[in-house]
Amino acid sequence: MDIQQSLIERIHRGDRGGANALLDAWASEHGYERLFTEVLDPTLQLIGEEWNSSETFTLAQVYVAAKVTEDVLCKIAVRRKSSSEGQPAKGPAVIGNIEEDFHALGRRMVGTFLRAEGWIVHDLGNDVPAALLVDKAQEVGARVIGVSAMMMTTARNIKRVREEIDRRGLAGRLQLAVGGAVFRVCPGLVEEVGGDGTAANALGAAELFKRLWEESVRKEAGS
Amino acid sequence: MNSMERIQATLAGKPLDRRAFAPVLGLYGARLTDCPLEKYYTDPEAYAAGQSAVRETFRPDVLCAPLAFASIGAAFGGELVFLDTESPNLRRPAVQSVEQWDSLVPPDPEAHPQLLFFRDAIRRMAAEHGGEVPIAMVIPIPVDIPAVVMGMESWLETVLFDPAGAQHVMERIIPFYVRLVNGFFAAGATFVVMPSGFASPAIVTREIVTNFTRLILAQTLTQLCGPVVLHNVGAPMLAHLDLLTGLPSVVGFIVDQQDDLARARRVVGPESVLFGGLDCTNLGPMTAVEVEDRCRAILEERRRDARFVLGTSGPDVAWDTPPENIHAMRKAAESFGRIEV
Questions:
Q1: Beta-carbon separation of A188 and B285 below 8 A
Q2: What is the chain B residue with the closest CA to A55?
Q3: How far apart are CA B74 and CA B66, in angstroms?
Q4: CA distance to partner chain B, nearest, from residue A152 (Å)
Q5: pLDDT of residue A83 exceeding 60
Q6: Which of A5, A40, A84, B120 is deepest in the core (most CB within 10 A)?
Q7: Which stretches of B41-138 are DSSP H helices?
Q8: Domains in chain A, start-ordered, CATH in brackets?
Q9: B138 located within any domain
C-alpha cells in the first residue's frame, strides 16, 4: 500500500498516533519539506475530494486530518527555525466567524489547512464585526477575507462585510470567501450574502483562497 | 380527533382522520407574540404565550418546549449571549479541557434558574394544552451535552483521543441528564426529541457510534420515564440509522430532508414513528406553493405508512420564514384526508 493510502487509512480510523508514526518514518528518509508536498498535501486533497463527493469522511475524521496536519506543521516549523530555511509565505489572509456566530470548529480547521499551504493567517475568532474584518485586512494587506457562519440568520450578517468592502471602494481588490454548514444546504446563499466564492469544506479552503487571491490581483491590474 | 389523539393513533399505527403535522416552531412563537428573545428564553410565561400563539395560528399537532441548548451550557457556567432572531448561543463555554471536569459541579435540575425555566415552561404549556396537544421537549442526546459545556472542539478531541477522559465526563453527565429529562416528563412533556450529533454520519464514524454513543444511550435511555424520538441534527442520518434502532424508550426518528424515507422505514422497522419533511433552513426561501407541492409529494410517497408524521428536519423553523409557508405544510397534511391502515 502506498504512503498516501496508508495515511488515509489511519486518518479514517482516527489513529492520530499511527498517522504521525507513518509520516515520521517517511520523513526520516526523505525530509519534512518533501513530506508535506509529496505526501500530506496530496493526501489532504484526496480526503477533501472524497469528503465532498461521497461523504465517506466524517467531521471527526477531517478533524483528525487537521490535527495530524498541525503536528506536521509544528515539526516543520521547528526544523525551519534551526536551519533558517523555508518556502515563501502566501497571503496574508484574514478569517473569522461573523458577528453573532460562535461556531468555531470549522473556522479553526480552515485556519489549519490554510497554514498548511503556507498562508499567513490572521484569525480574529468568533463574533467578529464586519468593520473589524475589513480593518484587519487593510492593516495587514490581505486580499482575501474568509468569513464563517453556521446558521442562516448569522450567515446573513455576512452581507455587512460585503457592504463594508463596497463602501470602502475595495470590491475586487478585497475578495470575500464564505463558508459554514448552512452554505452546503442553501443554494444561492453565497450570492445572497455577497460572497465571491465558497468551498465545499475546510479542505477546499486553500484552493479557494488561492483562486480569490489571483482574482484580486487580476482585477487590480485591470482597473 | 384532537392532536393528542392523532399522535397517539400514529404511535399505535391506527387509522387517522388526517396525517399529523409537526413542524418545530419553538422560536416562531416569539415572532408571533413580538417578544424579545432574552425574555422569551428566560420567562416561562412569555414562552408559553408564544406557543399558545403558535397553536392558534398554525394548529400544529405538536408544540415545542424551549429549544435552547446553549442555556444548558450556561447552567454549567458558560457565558450566554442572546440574539435578535435565533435562540441563545454560548459566547464562552464553562470549561476548556477534560481535566476541569473534576472541579465542575453539574447544576441542580430542580434549583438552577436556567433549567427551571425549561420545566416551568413545560408545566405552563401542559396545563394549557396538555390534554389536547402533545408537548415535545427538545434536548441533545447525553453524548452531545459536553459539547455545550466545553465547546465542540474540546469535546470532539476528547472523544477521539482520550476515551477514558470521555467516559469520565459521561459518568458526570448521565445522572444529571436523567434527573433533568425525567423532570421534563414530570412537568408534562409528552415525549422528548433528542438531536443526535454524536450519532450523525456527518460528525462521527460508525465505530464511535457503536463503541461509545450507543452504549451511553442504552445506559441513559433505560432510566428515562417517557418516550424518546431521535433527531437528525440537521444532516442525513440514514447511514447510521441501523445503529440507533432497538434502544430503550425510543419510539421514533426525525430523519433529514435528504434521507430516503422508504429506506429509513425499512431500517427502523414498522413499529417506529418516522418524522420527515422539509429542512427548516430551506423552508423560508421557498414559496408557499413550492412548500405545499413538496409536502404533498412526501405525503404521497408515505401514503401507506401508518406511522409517518409530516415534520421539519434541521433546527427550529427560522425567524424569517413566511407564515404562509407553514400554513402550506398544514394544508398539504389536511388535503390528504383520512389515513387508513
A1: yes
A2: B202
A3: 15
A4: 7
A5: no
A6: A40
A7: 44-58, 69-75, 113-129
A8: 3-83 (1.10.1240.10), 90-222 (3.40.50.280)
A9: yes
Residue of B28, B69, B82, B152 to mutate when probing chain A, most A C-beta within 10 A: B152
Q: Is the sign of the CA dihedral A164, A165, A170, A174 positive or negative? A: positive
Under 8 Å between Cβ of A168 and A134: yes
Q: Which residues of B touch A186 (CB under 8 A)?
A: 281-282, 285
Chain B nearest-CA residue for A18 = B161
Contact B208 A61 (CB under 8 A): no
Q: How many domains does chain B have?
A: 1
Interfacial residues of B (vs A; Cβ cutoff 8 Å): 81, 83, 85-86, 89-91, 151-153, 156-157, 159-161, 201-205, 207-208, 234, 236, 239, 279, 281-282, 284-285, 314-315, 318-320
Sign of the dihedral defined by the CA atoms of residues A71, A76, A82, A86, in that order: negative
Interface size, chain A vs chain B, as Cβ–Cβ contacts under 8 Å: 78
Amino acid, res. A108: R
Question: Domain range spanning residue B256?
Answer: 3-335
Are B201 and A58 a contacting pair at CB < 8 A?
A: yes
| Inside any domain, residue B145 | yes
Q: Is A97 on the interface with B (CB under 8 A)?
A: no
Q: Residue for cell digits 415534520?
A: B311
Q: Exposed, middle or buried by CB within 10 Å (0-12, 13-18, 19+), for B39?
A: middle
Count of CB atoms within 10 A of residue B207's CB?
Answer: 12
In a domain, B341, yes or no: no
Is the separation of the CB atoms in A98 and A155 below 8 Å?
A: yes
Report phi then psi at B112, rounded to 5: -75, 130
Q: Is B340 domain-assigned?
A: no
Confidence at A62, pLDDT banded by 50, 70, 90: confident
Query: Which of A184-193, B30-39, B190-199 is predicted least confidently?
Result: A184-193
Q: What is the distance between the alpha carbons of residues A220 and A203, in angstroms, rounded to a whole number?
A: 27
DSSP per position, A99-159: TT---HHHHHHHHHHHHHTTEEEEE--SSB-HHHHHHHHHHHT-SEEEEE-SSHHHHHTTH
- Distance between CA B228 and CA B253 in Å, rounded? 9
User: CB-based contact (8 Å) between A16 and chain B?
Assistant: yes
Q: Report the C-alpha gap between A88 and A118 in whole angstroms.
A: 8
pLDDT tens-digit readout, B167-188: 999 999 999 999 999 999 999 9
Q: Does the structure show a pLDDT above 90 at B321?
A: yes
- Identify the pLDDT of residue A223: 61
